[in-house]
């Protein structure tokens, strides 16, 4: 088991038609090498709304990992960089409750098919310094999600400590809450949120804060979050 106390939500814009190339590089050569130096590769996702967007959350026990492992790209690094237009859309987050626990021993083999799941990543954004907004998501909305449908795989908020490695920049001036939920398909996602809106406490919470962005994604074959 690996417990991540800091999580990066990384969203890459890729050159047209290169997403499967990048996923192949990740699956074959990036996962174990990065975990060997302290990184938890939590997932790899295809953005279902943008064929040239790749999303992957990665974690670590603490912020010092970013400096010590940030430049260890390995032999596949240049090939991966060649697929990308932009790799700087990064949210630095911390899991609610102290840590996000995954079991890398359960990861599928190289070449395993995609699991056929729909993973929704919903991001709420609040003014910097507004602690009430993330607390509303955490304390009022997340419990309703678990009551009327699947409980979230992860609930995260902005990590306020600054990024420690300039070559791996993160978005600054952010105050977000992020909820990751897995579904059998997109229809199950819609029904879940219909049930949240029909629930008294859920309707009240949503009336006070609307989601800024929901990323619908499909996990790749070796993704731990699925």
Q: Would you give an account of this structure?
A:
- The protein has 6 helices and 11 strands.
- The chain has 226 residues and is an alpha+beta fold.
- α4 packs antiparallel against α6 (200-208).
* Sheet with the most strands, sense and barrel status: 8 strands, antiparallel, barrel
What is the average per-residue confidence, as pLDDT, rounded to a whole number?
91
Bin the strand percentage: 25-35%
CATH topology: Alpha-Beta Plaits
Provide keyphrases for this structure.
226 residues; alpha+beta; Alpha-Beta Plaits; eight-stranded antiparallel beta barrel; two-stranded antiparallel sheet
Give a summary of the structure in a few sentences.
Helix content is 30%, strand content 30%.
Write the layout of secondary structure elements.
Layout: E1 2-4, E2 6-14, H1 19-35, E3 40-41, E4 45-47, E5 53-60, H2 64-69, H3 77-81, E6 84-95, E7 100-102, E8 118-125, H4 132-148, E9 154-158, E10 176-183, H5 186-198, H6 200-208, E11 213-219
Antiparallel strand pairs: 1-7, 2-5, 2-6, 3-5, 4-5, 4-11, 6-9, 8-10, 8-11, 9-10
Helix pairs in contact: 4-5, 4-6
